Amino acid sequence: MKKIKASTLRTLTILAFVLLVIIGLAFHTGTGTISAFGYKTISAICPLGSLEAQLASKTFLPQVLISLAVFVLITILFGRIFCAWACPVPLFRKWFPKNNSKINHAEKEVHASSQQTSKTADSSYFVLGGALASSFVFGFPVFCLICPVGLTFAVLIGAWRLIQFNEPTWSLLIFPVILVLELVFYRYSCSKFCPLGALISLVSRLNIFMRPKIDQKVCMQTSKGIECKLCKSVCNEAIDLHEPAKASTLSRCTKCRDCADVCPMSAIKFPFFSQKNDKHL
């Protein structure tokens, strides 16, 4: 029986989350959106949005602690799994052509520049700090206005209200335009500019489960000396599993499993429990 690729499973999982949102809208179950970690009133609060809201209002909101606690627990157990298996943005990005040489050249320059500075600082952490600081200064969650995850479901909710209640809004025109611009011109936004991903990565440093690991006895590079960078080439975070990875580097792993699928020797596994001090992760 042919093995189902992880990319196919991820697509099905994301579509299941989208279906859950539609069911919530249709039957008023209060299950919230895909960017939320909670239920009913708590489900309206994503971890980054909740922090921004508290900084904007300059007040402490006790009710968000439950949502944040669930977010921390899920991230400790599964790492940055949200970014690959729940967030719809990477899936949508595949629908846009990559043959625009000018855009690709600019993307590569930004991506290369970010990789060169990744050892000392990660640009997404600066964006995270800017998002939180701007919320405090301006008194409202600034990043929520351009968050691709939020925009995606704002469009979905707006479309549903148009169909169900005949309530047309300008958001159905403005939000899709902003979203398309982000998907086309900021192809590396998930790994280099997303503050939500950065926040998840910070907590993911505590994750010790399902971390990718190379079987050196099977790996073509370590066992036969044949240079192979296929796993790194398909990784959206450019993680090189052949190098001793630091916790801060592997914390950005989204568990997408593309590296395992592309490995010709099937040498990459995601064991449930991994020691953080493994020599090769």
Automatic annotation (TrEMBL):
<dbReference type="Pfam" id="PF12801">
    <property type="entry name" value="Fer4_5"/>
</dbReference>
<feature type="transmembrane region" description="Helical">
    <location>
        <begin position="169"/>
        <end position="186"/>
    </location>
</feature>
<dbReference type="InterPro" id="IPR017900">
    <property type="entry name" value="4Fe4S_Fe_S_CS"/>
</dbReference>
<dbReference type="GO" id="GO:0046872">
    <property type="term" value="F:metal ion binding"/>
</dbReference>
<dbReference type="GO" id="GO:0051539">
    <property type="term" value="F:4 iron, 4 sulfur cluster binding"/>
</dbReference>
<keyword id="KW-0249">Electron transport</keyword>
<keyword id="KW-0004">4Fe-4S</keyword>
<dbReference type="Pfam" id="PF00037">
    <property type="entry name" value="Fer4"/>
</dbReference>
<protein>
    <submittedName>
        <fullName>Membrane-bound polyferredoxin</fullName>
    </submittedName>
</protein>
<keyword id="KW-0812">Transmembrane</keyword>
<feature type="transmembrane region" description="Helical">
    <location>
        <begin position="60"/>
        <end position="92"/>
    </location>
</feature>
<keyword id="KW-0472">Membrane</keyword>
<dbReference type="GO" id="GO:0005886">
    <property type="term" value="C:plasma membrane"/>
</dbReference>
<feature type="transmembrane region" description="Helical">
    <location>
        <begin position="125"/>
        <end position="157"/>
    </location>
</feature>
<keyword id="KW-0411">Iron-sulfur</keyword>
<keyword id="KW-1133">Transmembrane helix</keyword>
<keyword id="KW-0479">Metal-binding</keyword>
<dbReference type="InterPro" id="IPR051684">
    <property type="entry name" value="Electron_Trans/Redox"/>
</dbReference>
<feature type="domain" description="4Fe-4S ferredoxin-type">
    <location>
        <begin position="243"/>
        <end position="273"/>
    </location>
</feature>
<keyword id="KW-0408">Iron</keyword>
<dbReference type="InterPro" id="IPR017896">
    <property type="entry name" value="4Fe4S_Fe-S-bd"/>
</dbReference>
<keyword id="KW-0813">Transport</keyword>
